[in-house]
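Sequence design from tokenized structure. All designs in this work follow the same two-part layout: the structure record, then the generated sequence. An example of the structure record is given first.
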């Protein structure tokens, strides 16, 4: 199956279980990989025959910025639902990175990946 991948969609959100995360917020970084048939757009060269990744990036950014959630797992699920709204998408992998996660030992990143399909 063909794929469209957007890497490093960055947004500011107030997700987390701790009060300071909800109050102060932090950056989240999201990668999405969509499975879909790209043969129609390869043949037509028409944007209407594929997912507009500019529109998708804006939708993912809105998912990051809106309505705080406790977990990045829930945020990844929200973003997966957004990606699957396009009926051409048969599967999506969403990775949400929380580089400033409040853990007691130094880490470069904390991330979760969800994979959803129709």
């Amino acid at each position: 199956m063909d794929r469209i991948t957007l890497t490093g969609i960055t947004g500011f959100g107030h997700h987390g279980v701790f009060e300071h995360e909800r109050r102060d917020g932090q950056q989240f970084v999201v990668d999405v990989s969509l499975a879909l048939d790209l043969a129609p757009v390869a043949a037509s060269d028409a944007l209407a025959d594929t997912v507009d990744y500019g529109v998708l990036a804006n939708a993912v950014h809105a998912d990051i910025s809106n309505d705080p959630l406790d977990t990045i797992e829930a945020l990844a699920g929200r973003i997966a639902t957004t990606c699957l709204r396009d009926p051409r998408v048969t599967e999506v992998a969403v990775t949400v990175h929380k580089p400033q996660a409040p853990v007691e030992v130094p880490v470069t990143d904390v991330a979760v990946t969800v994979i959803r399909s129709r």
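DSSP finds four helices and four strands in the chain. We note this feature because it recurs in several other targets discussed in the main text.
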